[in-house]
Amino acid sequence: MREELGARRPARRLAIQLREYALLMRLDRPIGILLLLWPTLWALWIAGAGRPDPQVFLVFVAGVVLMRSAGCVMNDFADRGIDPHVERTRDRPLARGTVSPVEALLLAAALGAVAFALVLTMNRLTVLLALAGAVLTIAYPFLKRFTHLPQVWLGASFGWSVPMAFAAQTGAVPQLAWLMFIAVILWAMVYDTMYAMVDRDDDLKLGVRSTAILFGDADRHMIGAMQALLWIALWLVGRQAGLGGWYLAGLAFAAGLSAWQQYLIRARRPEDCFRAFLNNHYYGLAVFVGILLHYTFASA
After folding, report:
1. In angstroms, rounded to a whole number, what is the distance separating the alpha carbons of residues 85 and 295?
2. Is the pLDDT of residue 117 over 50?
3. Contact status, residue 125 vs residue 171, Cβ threshold 8 Å
4. Does residue 48 belong to any structural domain of this protein?
């Protein structure tokens, strides 16, 4: 009996540690995966005229999960001295000490290596763009110490999947792809400013910088202006791509979600700002559904 219990202990310890790695990768909170996935799907469907290559689709969906997970690990590594002092983040594995910094770096490297191995099955232009994307992902977590605009860099990191998707699907990165890239940057600035509003008080004490701190009392107005610019950019994307009524219906629904998000953040309560942040998942979904319906029905 004792031998059986002894044999179970290493397996139990391994299961507990794997759970901590999963928490470090934020697999229990898929919102980041979704916010990265939607613009990737926008780009794949438009670049593929409604029929993305199956191999490209599978590689990019897997890449979204892997790179978002690696980004979370790097973010927590960079913030390991900050997270224990912030209410929302003090229970993260690195903050609690259940995962060491070395383990975190090895995990991020392993995730990045698998993602890059998948990219190597794509064409040369996609591989080169992936190398630039890796730099964006690695650098982002450290920028909040030096600039009030880390949200712009986050947008570039999340939006980089757009030119990559066009490159993988068509072998080129047209003007349309860069217009969509700009739209994703604006979108990330919208939702990540809402996210930063949740931690604004803690960030001010710790000297962490963000657009929420930069905008101050003008935060809601600045978010509203960026929401308007985002909608215009997405409308221009649809115009250039020849998307019709179904897409416009998706944009109309997205505009309604923007209004709802403004309502949620009206009093700047952290819990409501976080709800507004989470609501952006439906914004990305609405845009994708509009694209999907266009190619399903208008092109039939």
Report:
1. 49
2. yes
3. yes
4. yes
- How deeply is 284 buried, as exposed, middle or buried, from its count of CB atoms within 10 A (0-12, 13-18, 19+)? buried
pTM given for the model: 0.91
Residue 74 is assigned to a structural domain of this protein: yes
pLDDT digits (tens, 9 = 90+) for 230-263: 999 999 999 999 999 999 999 999 999 999 999 9
* Tokens encoding 147: 């600039």
> Among 67, 264, 283, 64, which Cα is nearest to 187's?
283
Residue 224 CB-density burial (10 A; 0-12 exposed, 13-18 middle, 19+ buried) = middle
Using the CB atoms, write b or e for 178-213: b if 16+ within 10 Å. ebbbbbbbbbbbbbbbbbbbbbbebbeebebbbbbb
| pLDDT greater than 80 at residue 104 | yes
Question: Structurally, how many domains does the chain consist of?
Answer: 1
Structural domain including 195 reads: 15-298
Domain presence at residue 6: no
Cα–Cα dist 96/76, whole Å? 11
Instruction: Return d(Cα 147, Cα 140) in angstroms, integer.
Output: 11
**In a 3-state reduction of DSSP, which class is residue 48?**
coil
285 lies in a domain?
yes
- Name the residue with higher pLDDT: 5 or 33: 33
pLDDT value at 5 more than 70: no
d(CA 112, CA 21): 15
CATH number reported for the structural domain that contains residue 152 in this entry: 1.10.357.140
